[in-house]
Amino acid sequence: MTVTEESFDVVVIGGGPVGENAADRASRTGLSVALVESELVGGECSYWACMPSKVLLRAGAVRALARDTPGLTDPGAPDAAAVFARRDEITSHWDDSGQVSWVEGAGLTLVRGHGRLAGERLVEVTAPKDGPAAGFGAAAEGDDAPVTRLLRARHAVIVATGSVPVLPDVPGLAEAAPWSSREATSADAVPESLVVVGGGVVGVEMANAYADLGSQVTLLARGGLLSSAEPFAGEMVAEALRAAGVDVRLGVEPSAVERAGGTVTVTLSDGGTVTAAEILVATGRVPRTADLDVAAVGLDESALGRGGALVVDESLQVTGVPGGWLYACGDVTGRAPTTHQGKYQARVVGDVVAARYGTQEGDRSPTAGDPVPGVGAEPARWSRYAATADQDARVQVVFTQPQVAWVGPTEREARAAGLPVEAVSYDLSWVAGASVESPGYAGRAQVLVDTQRRVLVGATFVGPDAGEMLHAATIAVVGQVPLDRLWHAVPAYPTVSEVWLRFLESYGL
To answer: A GO molecular-function term, please (predicted)?
Structure first.
């Protein structure tokens, strides 16, 4: 075995968008940073999740818009080959050289291989001799053993390893070689039929995408769809999927799966069966800590959160590790498993590390009014050194037809937390801007008003391009804008955003 060792101020494990952002921010006060990645730099979002999935959904969304617009002719089913070709462009044909150039241009050191914790401020990175091991150096001649590189962090290690999909313990399921989200977003052909297991974001988006592309889709969900959103959102998506030809079955789950040749047979919990050419399992993900060796830094199973998550404080410092040198951000924390929320955490933790350990003159260290959160100190709420939005303003967009977008808690979550809220709903089709867009426009929006403080704490939008309406609500929630002041934010006419005026009028302003 060939072993090399070198030191950096900071080591980041995980080179997805979250790790990239954390590494970049941490380096801005003169710290040297190593970025460790075992697969493609750019991570899940760039190659197998956010970006390719939205391309697969786009053609169907445009077709629906054309169908609903008087004067336009239905262009027909999307050309799957052209859609896949565009997907390949967006993923750079699964070539990360562009991302690598960005990393190097930012002054970061890329280390290819699998990183794991090996002791205090120590990361062990292993890569096969013939694998993508840039920066490792050559192994000894004739040595087929893995090359190992020890990275010693002078100040901090940041874990951004993301999450991995969960495969339910269903007889025959593993042997049936099911698709995960990776296979669904990187497929080069549309299966004649597809069974989707799971009613969450991945499940409904991929059911929508493959139905648009011509597959006969059956969607199985143990409960309702989009259970983390307001109930009306999942109900509207289920109705739209059924209208698009998807066989949506709620309250059922697989009890057995068998693949015979080109056919997968799924036996259901209600005694029925369904067959298809492929099966996609989208029943959730768990933080990727199983191969991180957290025991090496004194963390046992009892110190981890749900699904093995690294438990962090508001400055994203991992709790239970002496010396306060270990940090984490993104899905691995289990706090808010979306790319945008993970990148937000990355900005926070990168700034925390840069402020705590950076020495470069003219740095962006906080002022006296925004104190440096020293090791063990509590950062001020809503300072840039605290991931406050994870608790109060998480955002999510689901790119189905219709889109679903929300910020903050649902009404059920708010009431469970003891918040005095009133829900104000409005049918978006009643807004002038919606009627101009399409005679068949369908959508609904709801805000949650804290009746004591008279500010918004949450909002949900369902409708065409609902995701583009979300940020105004996010600003209102994060800014805790009083309703009396929000009344002076005049929406342009005729736009769908006029719903903001209707919310306030409905509330009595």
So the answer is: dihydrolipoyl dehydrogenase (NADH) activity
List the domain range (segments joined by +) for residue 352. 1-41+109-165+284-391
Q: Are residues 455 and 496 in the same domain?
A: yes
Residues annotated within the binding site are 54, 115, 161-163, 198-205, 284, 331
* Distance of alpha carbon 261 from alpha carbon 496, whole angstroms: 50
CATH number, domain of 145, equals 3.50.50.60
Mean pLDDT by 10 residues, the chain (509 residues): 87 97 96 97 95 96 89 88 97 96 96 96 82 39 67 97 95 96 96 98 98 97 96 97 97 96 95 97 96 94 93 95 96 94 97 88 42 57 90 95 97 97 96 88 96 97 96 96 96 95 92
- Secondary structure letter of residue 167 according to DSSP: -
Domain containing 470 — which CATH number? 3.30.390.30
DSSP string for 346-389: HHHHHHHHHHHH---TT-----TTS----TTPPPPTTSTTS-TH
Q: Are residues 310 and 361 in the same domain?
A: yes
Q: Give the residue ranges of the annotated binding site for NAD(+).
A: 198-205, 284
